[in-house]
Amino acid sequence: QTCALPIYGIISNIGTAHIGILGSREKIAEEKRKAFNYISKDGAAFVYCADDYADYCLENVIGKKIKYGTEDFIQSINPVDKGVNGTSFCLDGVTIDLPLSGKYNLINALGAIYVAREFGITNLEIKTGIENLSAISGRMEIKEVELINNKKITLIIEFHYHCFYLRGRVLNSP
Questions:
Q1: How many Cα atoms occupy the beta-carbon half-sphere of 41 within 13 Å?
Q2: pLDDT tens track for 91-135
Q3: Residue 18, pLDDT above cutoff 80
Q4: Which of 9, 49, 84, 131 could tie 67 with a disulfide, CB 3.0–4.6 Å?
Q5: Which helix (H) or strand (E) is 157 found in, with range?
Q6: pTM for the whole thing?
Q7: 9-13, 145-149, 150-154, 168-172: which range is least confident on average?
Q8: 83 Ramachandran zone, left/alpha/beta (phi>0; psi -120 to 50)
Q9: Which phi and psi (to 5°) does residue 111 adopt?
Q10: Computed over its alpha carbons, how large is the radius of gyration of the chain?
Q11: Neighbour order of strands in the sheet with 87-91
Q12: What percentage of the chain has pLDDT greater than the value 70?
């Protein structure tokens, strides 16, 4: 059997989500960077610049090496944290409302912006794509719930890959 090899690839982070399977962040980085081994000179590999494994992941890349999300770039888009309602930012004069909350979602969006720009996608098209995102089931799902005492709360559902990473919070709604 054959499978299509990647021409482009992105690693948004080397975290701990797969540590139960691989044992360490070093092993996770080792596995994730293997996808970059197939990127040809005509392709590109993207990594989040603040990840401490960014350089390691790019070491053997033959194609273009792109680090995204520099502090200067993040400051230039002027992100405004809207709590559970996401983040708003300005990309070269185009205001974009990312509907997903959390810094990691902003970092993921920045990666998508860099990839989109590599393909010549306009800021208005990027805006449309980002503003139409929705949460994956179990990842920063926001649910408005009314309790039996008629009190309304905001429930954030966050399952981080493994059951032992379950984090739940209940916030009072105004």
A1: 0
A2: 999 999 999 888 889 999 999 999 999 999 999 999 999 999 987
A3: no
A4: 49
A5: strand 152-158
A6: 0.80
A7: 168-172
A8: left
A9: -60, -45
A10: 18
A11: 80-81, 87-91, 94-98
A12: 86
Tokens representing 41?
Answer: 């000179």
For the chain, the residue count is: 174
Residue in the block written with tokens 């009190």: 151
* Interval 150-171 mean pLDDT: 58
DSSP state letters, 19-55: HHHHSSHHHHHHHHHGGGGG--TTSEEEEETTSTTHH
Distance, in Å, from the CA atom of 161 to the CA atom of 18, rounded to the nearest integer, reads 8
Closest CA to 108 of 12, 15, 33: 12
CA distance 24 to 41: 30
* Helix locations, 18-174, DSSP H: 19-22, 25-33, 54-58, 71-77, 103-118, 123-131
Please return the burial class of 154, using the count of CB atoms within 10 Å of its CB with bins 0-12, 13-18 and 19+: middle
User: What is the CA 58 to chain-centroid distance, rounded?
Assistant: 18
Question: Which residue matches tokens 């990842």?
Answer: 139
**For 85-95, how does the pLDDT look when each residue is reduced to its tens digit (9 = 90+)?**
899 999 999 99
Alpha-carbon span 171 to 93, nearest angstrom: 33
